[in-house]
Design a protein that fits this description.
Blueprint lengths: L8 H11 L1 E2 L11 H7 L1 E2 L1 H15 L5 E8 L2 E8 L2 E4 L4 E4 L3
Helix pairs in contact: 1-3, 2-3
Length: 99
C-alpha cells in the first residue's frame, strides 16, 4: 500500500496520477486487480479507478462507486464517485457531479 500521510480519497487520486503510467489497453481489455496495477505501476483508466475504489474502501472505509461515462462517440472513461464528487486518478482531478 502507498505510504501517504493523512490519507484521503483526494490524496490517493493524486498519488495514482503521479506514480502510475497510463497505457492504452484497447477497447475490450480485461481489468487488472488492484494488486497487479500496484505491481506493474501502469494501467488504463478502468484499472486506476478500480485501484482507487479498492484503496478508498479498504484504507478509508468509504463506500464508493465506479462511474462510467461516455467521453466521445466511441470512448468511455471510468472514475470513482463518492457523494457528488467524481475522482479521476487518470488525470489527477476531482470534479463536481452535475445533474
Amino acid at each position: 500500500m502507498p505510504e501517504i500521510e493523512n490519507p484521503s480519497i483526494t490524496k490517493y487520486t493524486i498519488w495514482i496520477y503521479r506514480t502510475m503510467e497510463w497505457v492504452q489497453q484497447g477497447r475490450f481489455d480485461l481489468s487488472q486487480s488492484p494488486r497487479v496495477t500496484l505491481e506493474k505501476k501502469s494501467g488504463d483508466c478502468e484499472d486506476f479507478a478500480i485501484l482507487l475504489k479498492y484503496l478508498s474502501e479498504t484504507e478509508l472505509s468509504l463506500e464508493v462507486q465506479l462511474y462510467y461515462y461516455k467521453r466521445v462517440e466511441t470512448e468511455y472513461h471510468v472514475v470513482v464517485r463518492y457523494n457528488d464528487l467524481l475522482y479521476d486518478p487518470t488525470f489527477g482531478m476531482v470534479y463536481e457531479l452535475r445533474y
